[in-house]
Amino acid sequence: MSTRGVVVVSGASRGIGREVATTLAADGWTVLAGARDPATLEGVDGVEPVQLDVTDGASVRAVAARASEFGGATALVNNAGIIGENVRGPVLEQDLQEVRRVFETNVLGAWALLQALTRQLRAAGPRGRVVNVSSGMGQLSDAQSGAGAYRVSKVALNMLTVTAANELRADGVLVNATCPGWVQTDMGGPQAQRTVAEGAASVLWGVRLPDDGPTGGFFRDGEPLPW
Ligand SMILES: NC(=O)c1ccc[n+]([C@@H]2O[C@H](COP(=O)([O-])OP(=O)(O)OC[C@H]3O[C@@H](n4cnc5c(N)ncnc54)[C@H](OP(=O)(O)O)[C@@H]3O)[C@@H](O)[C@H]2O)c1
């Protein structure tokens, strides 16, 4: 059994999630690396690949059951996310079917994993950590036009963060939203400012918080971000 704890990472097939999963494994965590296609994690050292589609309840429940076999999740990184197809343009013209798909992944997917692991996280008590990977594009104080499905989904994820943090406060579990910045992944594109490692650092910060660290906040690079 790992000394650091057991962490579930969604969207670990590539990008920020993969970096977070491999870094935590190297740090001595037991990492359940969730991927829609776990074959993408074949040969990745130190992680336990698990099939995870956050929009599929059975898949989410199976990951929670697998985490129990390892003694229960002490941390959850809700990283899986999508921008959506053809929903980067004006919010007034977006196809609501696709908006719904973005919400299913970015909001309800994170919500479902959190619910499935609540009992385990409560049992972890003050060791418990939840990091919801959000985005500055969900900042109400910096609202712009376009990419409405993504922006609105991240605002919802932020409110999920605050409400869940309040509900888990008495257990000592720390729940925060973090923005990785603009990162060179399939989502961010090659012109993005940050390397994957630089973006993942903001997420890892939330997992590595000391027991008396903040909860219910929104951060980038360990610094508070305005909502
Ligand atoms: N890149 C940026 O500039 C940036 C900026 C701010 C916030 N973020 C946030 O950072 C997180 C990671 O993004 P990224 O840049 O690493 O993107 P990415 O390279 O496109 O990776 C997205 C990950 O999410 C997974 N995923 C998508 N739908 C899923 C589902 N239904 N179930 C499980 N996994 C699913 C993908 O799995 P598959 O391989 O199976 O598709 C992939 O592992 C996202 O929440 C994103 O919103 C990114």
From TrEMBL:
Keywords annotated in UniProt: NADP, Oxidoreductase
UniProt-listed Gene3D superfamilies: NAD(P)-binding Rossmann-like Domain (3.40.50.720)
UniProt superkingdom: Bacteria
InterPro entries: Fungal_SecMetab_SDRs (IPR051468), NAD(P)-bd_dom_sf (IPR036291), SDR_fam (IPR002347)
Keyword Membrane applies: no
GO function term, MF aspect, one: oxidoreductase activity
Record-level GO cellular component terms: cytoplasm
Cross-referenced SUPFAM superfamilies: NAD(P)-binding Rossmann-fold domains
Family as reported in the entry's similarity comment: Belongs to the short-chain dehydrogenases/reductases (SDR) family.
PANTHER family found in the cross-reference section: NADB-LER2 (PTHR43544:SF7), SHORT-CHAIN DEHYDROGENASE/REDUCTASE (PTHR43544)
UniProt protein name: Short-chain dehydrogenase
Lineage of the species this protein comes from: Bacteria, Bacillati, Actinomycetota, Thermoleophilia, Solirubrobacterales
